[in-house]
Write a structure and sequence with these properties.
By secondary structure, the protein is of the alpha+beta class. It has helices spanning 3-9, 11-19, 54-63, 68-81, 125-135, 143-152, 163-173, 243-248, 251-260, 265-279, and strands spanning 43-47, 101-107, 113-120, 140-142, 190-195, 201-207, 228-231, 235-241, 291-297, 302-306, 312-317, 320-325. The protein is globular, with a radius of gyration of 19 Å. The structure holds N-hydroxy-L-asparagine.
Length: 331
């Protein structure tokens, strides 16, 4: 489909320019028609700024001849391991019953996928997700079954609580307000998508989910097509923020499919955000409602957008890593 036809097909994109609150060009490094041969590779795009060498770790792994999924696993593992990060892995804030439960998934360039949901006691949820992909005939393992599988594979059973996470939990218990909407303290999933030297694409994401969530609640992050989607012919996308909103529109799949129909990664992220608000307008009324997407296509173009101001992304390209404030579509 030509771009003009695409815009006709989805008039909302055309309308978006008028209310877009930040320069739309900030996220782009390449023209839309660049040939793959001109792209400087690898490219690594991840959500937020975790103040860790997340993207650099992936690049180094690739330079050392590691596979795409090994690079994804290593860099996400860095975030999972850090006890100071309260939204992923060790030190992640617990659910309202005090359990630290992790969600993660991974997808490779062949379209294979693995996922764990509500995994407790194992810090590297992304590694267990990779094992599910590579060592089982399944895509998803959940709860006790995911833990059992991880222990069988040699992962260590650990206590993932930290002094900080437990202090925060005790503080929360004083009021026990149940407000499962991300704000500045209770979110920050690591979603990472990358393109290796030969143009292949893979990705992963990992989170402890929303702080103080109901026990057993699963967000978008481990759901293939919601928190992550990779199609090596088209590109990849990952999400962060209120998982429920992302799941309801199969958000990352929607971003990739929108790119398939001719949209740039930036346009595709906007389409998914607008779809969420169109279908579930109540989210627009929530002050601290936060959902964002990052996306990468086969031309090496990237996009990122959140509903409200606040999303940052980290981009490694052309030998540099930069942390960028993502565009947003609402005030
Ligand atoms: C979830 N999307 O569990 C995750 C939470 C998150 O930044 O924070 N993302 O809904």
């Amino acid at each position: 489909m030509k771009r003009k036809e695409f815009l006709k097909y989805l008039p909302v994109i055309g309308a978006s320019a008028a209310i877009f609150t930040r320069p739309r060009t900030a996220a782009f490094g390449y023209g839309r028609n660049n040939q793959a041969a001109k792209i400087s590779l690898p490219i690594v795009l991840s959500t937020w700024d975790f103040k860790l060498p997340v993207n650099e770790t992936a690049v180094e792994a690739l330079r050392n001849g590691r596979s795409l999924v090994e690079a994804v696993e290593k860099s996400i593992g860095l975030v999972e391991e850090d006890p100071k990060i309260t939204s992923v892995g060790r030190g992640g804030y617990p659910d309202r019953d005090g359990h630290v439960s992790l969600d993660a998934c991974i997808m490779d360039e062949k379209g294979d996928a693995g996922s764990v949901m509500s995994l407790e006691h194992v810090v590297h949820a992304i590694s267990v997700a990779r094992m599910v992909m590579e060592k089982t005939p399944h895509v998803v393992l959940a709860g006790d079954g995911a833990l059992q599988f991880a222990l069988e594979q040699g992962f260590t059973r650990e206590n993932l609580e930290t002094e900080e996470s437990m202090n925060a939990y005790k503080e929360w218990l004083k009021t026990s307000g149940y407000n499962p909407v991300p704000d500045n303290h209770n979110h920050d999933t690591i979603g990472l998508i990358l393109m290796g030297a030969n143009g292949d694409i893979a990705g992963g994401c990992s989170t402890s989910g929303l702080a103080w969530k109901m026990h057993g609640r699963v967000g978008d992050s481990p759901i293939i097509g919601a928190g992550l989607y990779v199609d090596n012919e088209i590109g990849a996308a990952s999400s962060t923020g209120l998982g429920e909103a992302v799941i309801k529109v199969a958000g990352s799949f929607l971003v990739v499919e929108t790119m398939r129909h001719g949209a740039s990664p930036q346009e595709a992220c906007e389409v998914a955000l607008r779809r969420i608000i169109k279908k579930q307008p109540q989210y627009a009324e929530v002050n601290n409602f936060l959902v964002g997407f990052i996306a990468l296509n086969k031309n090496g173009e990237i996009g990122a957008c959140s509903y409200r101001k606040g999303l940052q992304y980290s981009l490694w390209r052309d030998g540099n890593n930069s942390v960028v404030d993502a565009p947003y579509i609402a005030g």
